[in-house]
Amino acid sequence: MDIKVRVWRQAGPSAAGKMVTYDVKGISPDASFLEMIDVLNETLILGGDDPIAFDHDCREGICGACSMVINGVAHGPEKATTTCQLHMRKFSDGDVIDVEPWRAAAFPVIKDLVVDRSAFDKIIQAGGYITAPTGTAPDAHATPVPKKDADAAFEAATCIGCGACVAACPNGSSMLFTAAKIAHLGLMPQGQPERDSRVIDMLQAQDDAGFGGCTNAGECTTVCPKGIPLSLIGRLNSDYRKAITTR
Amino acid sequence: MAVDTPIPKTTKAAGATARPTPPKSVRPSSVVLKLIMAASGALLVFFLFAHAAGNLKIFVGESDFNHYAEWLRELGTPLLPHAWFLWIQRVGLLVAIGLHIWAAAALTIRAKKARPVKYAHRPKVQGSYAARTMRWGGVIIVLFVIWHILDLTLGKVNPAGGDSAPSERVVEGFAPDRWYVTLFYVLAVVAVGFHLRHGIWSAARTMGQQTIKGERRAKAIALTLSVILVAMYLSVPIAVLTGLVG
Amino acid sequence: MTANDFWAEGEPVFDKAAPDGPVETRWERRKFSAKLVNPANRRKLTVIVVGTGLAGGSAAATLAEAGYRVKSYCYQDSPRRAHSIAAQGGINAAKNYRNDGDSVYRLFYDTVKGGDFRARESNVYRLAQVSVNIIDQCVAQGVPFAREYGGLLDNRSFGGTQVSRTFYARGQTGQQLLLGAYQALERQIGLGNVEMNARHEMLELIIVDGKARGIVVRDMVTGEITTEFADAVVLASGGYGNVFFLSTNAKGCNVTASWRAHRKGALFANPCYTQIHPTCIPESGSHQSKLTLMSESLRNDGRVWVPKKAADCPKPAGSIAEEDRDYYLERIYPSFGNLVPRDIASRAAKNVCDEGRGVGPGGLGVYLDFADAIKRLGRKAVEAKYGNLFEMYERITGEDPYETPMRIYPAVHYTMGGLWVDYDLQSTVPGLFVVGEANFSDHGANRLGASALMQGLADGYFVLPNTISNYLAAGPFKKVTESDEAVVEARKQVEDRIEKFLSIDGDRTVDSFHRELGQIMWEYCGMERTEEGLTKAIGLIRALKEEFWTRVKVPGKGEELNQNLEKAGRVADFIELGELMCIDALHRRESCGGHFRAESQTPDGEALRHDDQFSYAAAWEYFGADGKPVLHKEDLNFEYVHPSTRSYK
Ligand SMILES: Cc1cc2nc3c(=O)[nH]c(=O)nc-3n(C[C@H](O)[C@H](O)[C@H](O)COP(=O)(O)OP(=O)(O)OC[C@H]3O[C@@H](n4cnc5c(N)ncnc54)[C@H](O)[C@@H]3O)c2cc1C
Ligand code: HEM
Ligand code: HEM
Ligand code: SF4
Ligand code: F3S
Ligand code: FES
């Protein structure tokens, strides 16, 4: 199929950027979106142009590296799918496809479609863990975890840290990401001792990193490739309210 | 160029037990702001219901309605001097709306800073429509309230004038030839409805609602309350317009 | 042409750190004999850890907890994205929670046997012992393993074992384990005990006075080259399966860190040992950039077949009658059936495709059919077990596996070879430790499913932190400075190489070279190898190398984010590695573990090992780009598990 892509090109962090249009001819509908850009890049390189920089690694929807806003939607039109798992068969011959980087102050653009998401690591640093120094653990069966809780914790833990939620949120809020981690750890007995400090510290780290506050706009969950539900934000709020009122 | 990095100044060498503590921020956290909005919003909703109920008294009779306005001013007497309750309520409302607007503004400013660049491709809104209109909706409501107070409380922009009885102001204010005023009221009330449909649901989430059942319930309650409120409010101007009252 | 045109043989190499005596107490005794570092002194010691996967992430966190100063590096934008994140199936541990006769000894036994008797008994035993602690550690960190209704951990049986010892978290075990390690690491970063350098690539090792003392890194955002010093260097840079271009590895996986160390003297062992995974989604066209693995657990319920007649292959699967289908694994290996080990399943698939009975594009695929499972268990049950894998398959291929059988084909998945290390995980360069997939590991010639995760975490959490202290006890070492000759030279090597890449300005892209290299490797050094093919491959690779250095085109500058420059460095190293892999494969004239040497087979076409000649690890020494690599053999002795012929029939 033949398509046109309009891609955000920005030479560096402080350079001005603009949308540039490219023709992509004869691309297979079985190619993934990133493979389509690979093909385009090959022609750009041979034509003496700078290829499009974009983040990617696993190309199986699990590492969370890929990050493109496609036609205004983070990770593109297919629900619950990362950019790397999106295939060209979801588009039609002759389409003009807009490709932009994640947009959020906390995720500054480094080059073209590559943004800096280290703010997410800062949030985890502030409390997104269970303190369990190596070698101190009791037998794994010492604390049974109800299957229901374990399953719910797992669902929350599937967040891949891609940042699509931030890219989609009109407030540039990372609430869904933070909430997913709070829920994952807070649903397990191991996570209880640090439950209060975790939510307070992680939320502060999120605010400090320049993310906006959540006003329940609900856009984040619609683009989340792992379908992290909005209800987890309620859970964070509840944990937070309890934490500040009991501390 | 990183040569040997200096030994960190922290004395937290006992890495196994220490925990990183971020310096406390002086800004209220975004969730605290939301809690303030929810609490002040709840108060405002409570007022709206009381106010709407009071308005309905006009159907019982104009004197009842006026009595009610007077009763508002007598409430709490003789414990409180005349009209004190009303003033307490007014101050309460002002504080609530002040906090509400302040929190909304703070969150809006943070949001603008957090999302300075717009996408070139503007997609269809994925979340709810009401969610997107909260800020503008709020501003419209406040502008309306200012007009409304000038109109029905102070009578400044009301044909019946300041010294009239409240019922006169209502009846004359919504007279058919002033249809544009009525239209403005209707629009404002609908705006309130939208604001509350999302607002009440959102407040439930802010307070920690997190279950599937709770979600359904919160949506249903928000919708029901908003529809009831809109209906209660609209009934008055429509009744006046259609001559049912007056 | 004789083999010796390609390599020379040197002195044997010995594992001097390995304790002897009863295998059960070796690790205990090694820990006891290892020197300790006084806690107050640990803060004066710096350790560089390259890589933040299961091995590197857990090592960095644990070393920092112990009080060392750690500098950590990864090429991704966050340590959480290391390739370990992609592991699906699970992690083994000898917990015997199922009371099905499992034990440390049985896990040890299975792993040595699974590795086709090309692994060290001491290491494997230690791995089995430590496996138990890994699960405890991960549970304490909050890793959400699958649980049963009673709230206890669930297990499943996995690829070729008869006990249920695999712990898992849906199909995302690697992700959950890595997030556990990542969170522990982030905690230490927050405490200031680890200096994290994401988007930093190690491009050279710095050896001063014979000891590994630092690395040269490139900041991948600004392009700045810096030299970083430490008392010891740990490489946890993962596997090199990407040498095949099409593999299940992440696009960024590379051999650069290991290869640079190899060029500076670290021996590289068993480079040709690669693992081919039987259940990957087949290639769909020339745009293909990588292959996707589907969990092996699918083979628990799916049945593998191809049409009996080649003429039936293009027909839709549904229209092929039951009696015209060849369930070849069940037919050839009746006792294991669809659950034969990976190497056997892979080669069997290749064989039927070579016979012209493959299905799908290019005839490179076999069916994995769930129709019977759906009939037997119901669609709901199948969905509960494999729902996410089915979804993934549909997303990639556009076909619905509930309706039409999946198509699968083998793909390169894991590399058992890597830098040679002793029992302490120290390479032949003092102070250079290698953990996880980057070392030549505990798996021998083949890896059982669910054991790489185990090894990565065993190395990082439990082994390295105990053994590295023995080395560091002699430190802090003499201060290294920017102006030391070795440092200046290492930096210059990096700068010159970058300069060279950028100046060639040829007419072929880096990817085109990588793709070509991959095709050579897959064709001649993949599942089945022959002397003739390997000799040819070496010639082709040498020609490709020549061409690379004259015709590659790397756009852009060095002082910016330049993904093609990064790739160029990786591909240049892959080309050199590819050559060594072929030489290693050529020299090993036996079929063993993951690879099949056509000249060495039983009359009925099964792999034939030669324990009398090849019971050793082949550790190669680098002798210049045009020199011959030198082979150092490490003899492997089997005191507990005696070599036997694997039979899955
Ligand atoms: C698709 C897939 C599924 C798998 N499933 C299973 C399974 O079910 N069970 C199992 O046991 N095993 C499985 N494996 C194998 C297992 O996942 C890996 O062997 C293991 O995770 C490797 O871990 P590691 O820590 O050694 O390396 P990795 O996780 O690969 O980490 C490498 C690290 O090194 C860094 N790095 C590399 N080069 C450089 C450089 N030059 N400079 C700086 N940093 C660098 C990277 O940034 C990264 O942080 C699977 C593998 C694949 C590919
Ligand atoms: C200038 C005036 C106002 C502005 C700018 C404003 C703005 C907002 C905003 C931005 C929200 C957050 C929406 C969300 O959570 O997604 C909100 C919530 C709310 N508003 Fe208003 N509003 C205003 C006036 C009012 C008034 C007059 C009322 C009452 C009648 C009201 C009741 C509520 C309620 C109940 C909520 C829900 C609180 C929550 O989400 O936690 N608001 N408002
Ligand atoms: C359309 C239906 C409405 C009618 C008929 C109505 C009527 C009135 C009247 C008669 C008063 C004067 C009361 C007095 O002075 O004693 C009043 C005051 C007021 N109304 Fe309304 N109102 C309506 C809708 C609203 C809405 C939608 C809001 C808010 C969003 C609102 C907010 C107020 C406020 C804040 C006051 C001032 C209260 C005070 O003086 O303390 N009203 N209204
Ligand atoms: S919550 Fe969803 S969208 Fe946000 S980072 Fe996690 S996976 Fe990505
Ligand atoms: S879109 Fe943004 S406002 Fe909240 S609900 Fe999602 S984070
Ligand atoms: S590249 Fe890993 S999730 Fe897309």
UniProtKB/TrEMBL annotation, chain A:
Gene3D superfamilies annotated for this entry? 3.10.20.30, Alpha-helical ferredoxin
Leader sequence segment = none
Which cofactors does this gene product need? [3Fe-4S] cluster; [2Fe-2S] cluster
- What are the residue boundaries of the 4Fe-4S ferredoxin-type domain, all occurrences included? 150-179
Q: Does the keyword Zinc-finger apply?
A: no
* The keyword Secreted is assigned to this record: no
Tree of life domain: Bacteria
What NCBIfam families does its record include? PRK07570.1
Q: What is this protein called?
A: Succinate dehydrogenase/fumarate reductase iron-sulfur subunit
Query: From which organism does this entry originate?
Result: Actinoplanes sichuanensis
TrEMBL record, chain B:
Indicate yes or no for the key word Transmembrane: yes
Q: Where is the stretch described as Disordered?
A: 1-26
| Record-linked InterPro entries | Cytochrome_b-558, SQR/QFR_C/D, SuccDH_FuR_B_TM-su
Q: Which residues belong to the signal peptide in this entry?
A: none
Check the record and name the Gene3D superfamilies matching this protein. Fumarate reductase/succinate dehydrogenase, transmembrane subunit
Name the domain of life. Bacteria
Q: Which Pfam families match?
A: Sdh_cyt (PF01127)
Q: Is Heme a UniProt keyword of this protein?
A: yes
Which keywords describe this protein according to UniProt?
A: Heme, Iron, Membrane, Metal-binding, Transmembrane, Transmembrane helix
Q: Where in the cell is it found?
A: Membrane
Give the transmembrane ranges: 31-53, 84-109, 129-150, 179-200, 221-245
Full protein name: Succinate dehydrogenase cytochrome b subunit
From which organism does this entry originate?
Answer: Actinoplanes sichuanensis
From TrEMBL, chain C:
Segments forming domain Fumarate reductase/succinate dehydrogenase flavoprotein-like C-terminal:
514-648
Q: Which residues form the FAD-dependent oxidoreductase 2 FAD-binding domain?
A: 47-453
**UniProt superkingdom:** Bacteria
What Pfam families does the record tag this protein with?
FAD_binding_2, Succ_DH_flav_C
Name the UniProt key words of this record, in alphabetical order. Answer: Flavoprotein, Oxidoreductase
Against SUPFAM superfamilies, the record matches this protein to: FAD/NAD(P)-binding domain, Succinate dehydrogenase/fumarate reductase flavoprotein C-terminal domain, Succinate dehydrogenase/fumarate reductase flavoprotein, catalytic domain
| UniProt keyword annotation of Chloroplast present | no
Presence of keyword Cell membrane: no
**Entry protein name:** Fumarate reductase/succinate dehydrogenase flavoprotein subunit
Gene source species = Actinoplanes sichuanensis
